[in-house]
Task: structure prediction
Amino acid sequence: MQANYVQRLRLAFDKNGPARYIGHLDLARTLERSLNRARIPIAYTQGFNRRPRLSFAAALPLGYTSEYELADIWLLEEMNPQVALEQMMQKMAPGIKVTTVKEVPVGAPSLQSLTDSAHYEVTPFEKQDANDLASRVSRLLAQQNLVRERKSGKGKVKHYDLRPLILELASMTDRDDKAVLTMTLLLMSGKTGRPDEVLAAIDLDPLAAHIHRTMITLIE
Result:
């Protein structure tokens, strides 16, 4: 079947404020509505259940914020990327800010196949003892293996090694003397590190911290 698109644009965008409570599927619907209101000529798949040609690099869990999410859209008509950005931001939903738009080859590999790692900053809601937190981080990094459980569909439990999924992990204090964790985790198919599981491994409640994604690194 002949393709019904002529151009592919890659969006980088923030997800903050009220948008942090939008789940991944709702985010796709929100972007679709915003793009349609902005009169962006987004292409749709063919068939009975038509869907916008919109693809994300990686899902962001509910409640997380981010300053660097990536999505590709395919267009029916060519647009100047800067003009597309300006039109998008005129009608974009609250909490989503498109920061850059660039053209990529139509036939380039999918974003999901290019993701390599993601960087996060984590701020516990309650004040932490900086020395104790640093000690817990050091103990985790000293381990060669860190076998954890991850629940999947239908109640199944999968055992996996979290340690090789952690590329970097460090603790520090910010300008307000609050403890902050920074972590870089693998973000590859079948090899994805999750911030909540890292926090649990150092005895921090994932629900008692603000998790913020600052970067997604793609394979060059």
Observations:
- Helices lie at 24-37, 81-91, 111-114, 130-142, 195-201.
- The chain has five helices and eleven strands.
